[in-house]
Amino acid sequence: MAEATGTAGTAGTAAATAGPAETRPAREFTDPEAPRAHGRVLEGLRGYGLIVAMWIRSTMTYRTSFVLSTVGNAAITLLDFVAISIMFSHVDVLGGFTLPEIALLYGSCSASLGLADLLLGNTDRIGARIRDGSLDTMLVRPVPLLAQVAADRFALRRLGRVVQGLGVLGWALWSLEVDWTAGKVLLVPVMVLSGAAIFAAVMVAGAAFQFVAGDAAEVQNSFTYGGCTMLQYPPTVFATELLRGVTFIVPLAFVNWLPALYLLGRPDPLGLPGWAAFLSPLVAFVVFVPASLAWRAGVRSYRSTGS
Amino acid sequence: MRQRVRLYAAVAAGGFRRYATYGTATAAGVFTNTVFGFIVAFTYAALWDQRPGLGGYDRAQALTFVWVSQSLLAAGAFIGGGFQEEIQERVRTGDIAVDLYRPADLQMWWLAADLGRSAFQLLGRGLVPLVAGALAFQLALPSDPWRWLLFLVSVVLGLVVSFAVRYMLGLLAFWLMDGSGINLMATVVSIFFSGMLLPLTVFPGAFGEFVRVLPWAAMLQVPMDVLLGVHSGAGDAVGALGFQAGWVLVLLGAGRLLQSAATRKVVVQGG
User: Fold this and answer.
1) Which residues are within 8 A (CB) of B3 and not within 5 positions of it... i.e. 6 or more apart?
2) Tens of pLDDT along B187-206?
3) Domain for residue B270, yes or no?
4) pLDDT mean across residues, chain A
5) What's the rounded Cα separation, in Å, for the pair A246 and A244?
6) Does B257 touch chain A (CB under 8 A)?
7) pLDDT tens-digit map of A242-265
8) pLDDT tens profile B97-114
């Protein structure tokens, strides 16, 4: 065992110096076959797909556990919603919102978070990888590090949450009387997908943060799970300072609040105009910039523990 | 006997120290508990403003419920993070064999270690969120030291009930090998049926009656009611603590039965 980790350690030092070099254009001179930017993305996606397929095969080895955990994953969100329904057995409106309106908020944010969690939810394991030195092994593999970290222990059971969130969202849209326009129809899938992208950016930033503070994996739960708990209630319930924070600093309000308020024809408590509802994809794109910069800075600053 | 006590005390101290080592992780956990506390507190405030007295609590009591539950979240391992993942891993890798030939009782060993962990997390992860909550909101924390003492006893009983359930979940690894599915289910059940998501007194009708006698009620709802003075009379408090003690006996006993079934099943290969 000691021998195995020793080898990984030495390989890691080589990789730590090779890592940053990958981002330099100089590499193109040394290797004429080096893939260009879009090539690297494709390469990353291909590697991601291969690792994911491997984990799915491995998951299917313990079938009882897989079935239980998929059902459990759906049930986690279902019980959240049961708790909200119990609240509504005592009141008709909460913060001025009815149960189907809250179901719209709940379903969309649950589906978004579920999707982000399915695709790169295990990025928070990077802290453990840094501690035990197994990140070094990843650095020498010919697949971009982020793709490996995102696919690490890919958990298909998380599909449970996505399906459950979409189910509640479907029920909400069916029971609400929305004045449908082409824009509003388009907004529903855009909301779920951009929401997932915003959560994904938070997860990448959280993973990058672990290069600095390895044990602090739980902080990102505040923004992902905590954010989703917040977004499933109407914004009218929360204090204005908190609303400003999640609109302008960590723009979680664009995950579902602003699009959903537009669908429901309600004004934003912060007074943002209606067209802000359509900014979610742009916001998702913009938040990826600091997240990916943080990720690059994190990888570049990485020093192997050597064990 | 004295040797035994000293052994388990040492194991508990080890559990305490082990978790005290990770300062950053503790700080991260405190941050998360505080953020969740704020989010849930705002939603409860909205609910109780609309329906004062819901579930037998006024607004300040409901907010106290939120913040004290966040403070107990890590100690009670309501969303995992205790030892059950570890015991499952030890079963999977075969390290459990080492635990079995130790001259100590398996269940008591893990109980001592887990209580040590809980003691640290009660202090390390419990105090700051509660102070933050008390500064930001008006809470109904009692001033009577006797009530706090009863609360502490009730919390310890709740922690043992929580341990007893998680011990059995850990042992299930002898049959299931991979515990991640069962752990996830256990998390769902424990946050919902303990009152972490919504106080059990708010649950309606017969379903409410039913959830209030389950073991999960003994983990959070009962300690909270003891603190909030719902069981204020001496007789009431004894009833509440007796309810918890009853579940402690039943569940620890069931754990022992499961343990003997598991150890009969285990085949240790040399090497």
Assistant:
1) none
2) 888 999 999 999 999 999 99
3) no
4) 84
5) 6
6) no
7) 999 999 888 999 999 999 999 999
8) 888 888 889 999 999 999
Q: Do B36 and A222 touch (CB under 8 A)?
A: yes
Contacts of B128 in chain A (CB under 8 A): none
Q: Is residue A169 part of a domain?
A: yes
Residue B38 lies in a domain: yes
Using the Cβ of B175 and the Cβ atoms of chain A, whether some distance falls under 8 Å is answered with: no
Of the partner residues A91, A218, A221, the one whose CB lies closest to the CB of residue B50: A91
- A55 falls within a domain: yes
Mutation for testing the B interface, residue in A67, A81, A87 having most B CBs under 10 Å:
A87
β-bridge mates for residue A97, sequence order: A94
How many domains does chain A divide into? Answer: 1
pLDDT at B18 over 70: yes
Q: How confident is the model at residue A29 (pLDDT cuts 50, 70, 90)?
A: very low
Contact B181 A157 (CB under 8 A): yes
Which residue type is seen at B227? L
Whether B178 contacts chain A with CB within 8 A: yes
Q: Are B89 and B166 in contact (CB under 8 A)?
A: no
Whether B184 and A157 lie within 8 Å, measured CB to CB: yes
- What pLDDT does A3 receive? 35
* pLDDT confidence bin for B24, thresholds 50/70/90: confident
CB spacing of B39 vs A226 below 8 angstroms: yes
Residues B82 and B117: their CA atoms lie apart, in Å, by 8
Distance from CA of B7 to the nearest CA of A (A): 30
A307 part of a folded domain: no
List Cβ<8 Å contacts ≥24 apart for A147-150: A147/A44, A147/A45, A147/A47, A147/A48, A147/A51, A148/A47, A148/A48, A148/A51, A149/A120, A149/A122, A149/A123, A149/A125, A149/A207, A150/A48, A150/A119, A150/A120, A150/A122, A150/A123
Report pTM.
0.86
Check residue B200 and report its DSSP letter: G
Q: Evaluate whether residue B271 is within a structural domain.
A: no
In this complex, the residue of B25, B47, B182 whose CB is nearest that of residue A218 is B25
pLDDT digit string (tens) for A46-72? 999 999 999 999 988 888 878 887 887
Q: Which domain holds residue A286?
A: 2-301
Does the CB of B9 have a partner CB in chain A at under 8 Å? no
Asked whether residue A306 is assigned to any structural domain, the reply reads no
The reported pLDDT for the residue numbered A16 is 39
Residue-level pLDDT at B270: 59
Is the CB of residue A212 less than 8 Å away from at least one CB of chain B?
no
- Containing structural domain, residue B127: 2-265
